[in-house]
């Protein structure tokens, strides 16, 4: 059986998948070009032909993670209720992470660090969150600085999702913790008037 063509899209896909799994489950320094190529049943020459080298391959993995999360969050519909939209975005974030655990691990602790406080690009996963926060601020539902609110929500989400993916929380606990913690985080950034109305609407314990 001959060696796969270096410009074959099937080879490209195998290389990205194998690199994703290795970067999500091993220390980055232990992920060599030779190991990825061997796992993908390809040659190191294919990596250079398709990606320009190891950095290009790792960059392709990160790009897939960024694009996937952005598309997952961008699919959330916009409504007239900013708080409901923010909760829906949190649900979508968690759902994407659970369905793409290796890509999530790569994005937040693998190939390169994703900086949620950096410049917001056209395909940046933080953009849908900031847009919903801006709507909440414009509607006087939220109070504060948009980036601070975004980092607070993201930090809370990341902590919950990381614990869940690590198996530290069973299914029922993870679900209950997600609902209560995200609602509490969002409520904490509301204006005093909205905060009081949310508290009054809560069912008695």
Structure commentary:
With 205 residues, this protein is mainly α. The chain is built from ten helices and no strands. Helix 3 crosses helix 4. The longest helix has 21 residues. The model has no long low-confidence stretch (mean pLDDT 87).
Brief digest:
The protein has helices spanning 9-25, 33-39, 44-51, 54-74, 82-99, 101-107, 126-138, 146-165, 171-188, 192-201. By secondary structure, the protein is mainly α.
Number of strands: 0
Query: Helical proportion?
Result: 55-70%
Query: What's the number of helices?
Result: 10
Percent strand equals under 5%
Instruction: Give, in order, the helices and strands.
Output: HHHHHHHHHH
Main structural class: mainly alpha
Question: Uncertain segments of ≥5 residues (pLDDT<50)?
Answer: none
How are the secondary structure elements laid out?
Blueprint: H1 9-25, H2 33-39, H3 44-51, H4 54-74, H5 82-99, H6 101-107, H7 126-138, H8 146-165, H9 171-188, H10 192-201
Helix pairs in contact: 1-4, 1-6, 3-4, 4-5, 4-6, 5-6, 5-7, 5-8, 7-8, 8-9
Which structural traits does this protein have?
205 residues, mainly alpha, 10 helices, 0% strand
């Amino acid at each position: 059986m001959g060696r796969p063509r270096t410009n074959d899209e099937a080879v490209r896909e195998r290389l990205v998948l194998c690199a994703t799994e290795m970067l999500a489950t091993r220390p980055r320094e232990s992920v060599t070009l030779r190991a990825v190529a061997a796992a993908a049943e390809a040659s190191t020459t294919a990596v250079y032909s398709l990606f320009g080298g190891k950095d290009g391959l790792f960059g392709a993995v990160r790009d897939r993670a960024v694009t996937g999360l952005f598309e997952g969050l961008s699919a959330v519909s916009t409504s007239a209720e900013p708080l409901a939209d923010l909760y829906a975005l949190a649900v979508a974030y968690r759902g994407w992470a659970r369905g793409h655990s290796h890509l999530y691990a790569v994005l937040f602790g693998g190939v390169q660090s994703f900086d949620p406080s950096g410049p917001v690009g056209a395909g940046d996963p933080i953009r849908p969150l900031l847009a919903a926060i801006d709507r909440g601020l414009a509607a006087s539902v939220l109070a504060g600085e948009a980036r601070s609110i975004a980092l607070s929500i993201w930090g809370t989400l990341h902590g919950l999702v990381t614990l869940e993916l690590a198996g530290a929380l069973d299914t029922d606990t993870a679900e209950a913790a997600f609902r209560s913690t995200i609602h509490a985080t969002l409520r904490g950034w509301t204006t005093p008037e909205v905060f009081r109305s949310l508290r009054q609407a809560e069912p008695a314990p």
